[in-house]
Write a structure and sequence with these properties.
Length: 208
């Protein structure tokens, strides 16, 4: 099964929020909700050795997705391409999946009374196109593809960097597939979990 995901090169990311806007425009995400979120990490450390960087987040396409395992109706599922999705017709609005997600990247659609999330723009990728956030990234910091395919854009970008420069959000047994590239040029990667709901400019809190 493919491991399709997005790779984000934080050495290039400028924190412009263009990915957030592109996602909302392409998918008609409701006002006040975001499938893609850009957080500010830091500043942490002591001058002059300090780290501060933008951290775009979205569904991490976990290999052991807790949102899928807790769903009582099968509304949260993995499709034939390995992508974690939500079947709105089966969603009963229990919000178990939202509570189970370690990264707080699921949203609640008030109008439709169901959970929703990043779909990796399956309606675009099925036609050979790129996800909206990848296509619109002004800094060229986002890459889409199958981690198990060495010829995918995602794998090719990862192959340029040392293992120590490739990171994931904190793994709490869910094995997130999304990869982040960050070298010492930016600072020290902070191995923490993204809060469920946090303002854009807030510091990135330590996971309890």
């Amino acid at each position: 099964m493919a491991r399709n995901c997005i790779v984000v090169n934080l050495d290039r990311c400028t924190g412009c929020f263009g990915c957030e806007v592109a996602c909302k425009m392409e998918n008609g995400v409701a006002l006040g909700e975001r499938w893609s979120k850009v957080f500010t990490v830091g500043p942490v450390g002591e001058y002059p050795d300090m780290t501060r960087y933008a951290l775009p987040t979205m569904c991490q396409q976990c290999e052991n997705a807790p949102c899928v395992s807790v769903c009582p109706t099968g509304a949260s599922y993995r499709d034939e391409n390995g992508v974690v999705l939500v079947d709105k017709e089966k969603c009963i609005g229990c919000k178990y999946c939202m509570m189970a997600c370690p990264y707080g990247v699921r949203s609640w659609n008030v109008a439709e009374k169901c959970a929703e999330k990043c779909t990796l723009c399956g309606h675009l990728t099925s036609q050979g196109k790129l996800p909206a956030c990848v296509k619109s990234c002004a800094a060229g910091a986002r890459f889409y593809g199958d981690l198990d395919d060495p010829n995918s854009d995602a794998s090719k970008e990862l192959a340029k960097y040392a293992e120590g420069d490739i990171h994931t959000l904190q793994d709490v047994g869910n094995a997130p597939a999304t990869r982040y590239i960050m070298t010492s040029m930016i600072g020290q990667w902070q191995d923490r979990v993204t809060p469920a709901d946090h303002p854009h400019t807030a510091a990135y809190p330590v996971a309890e």
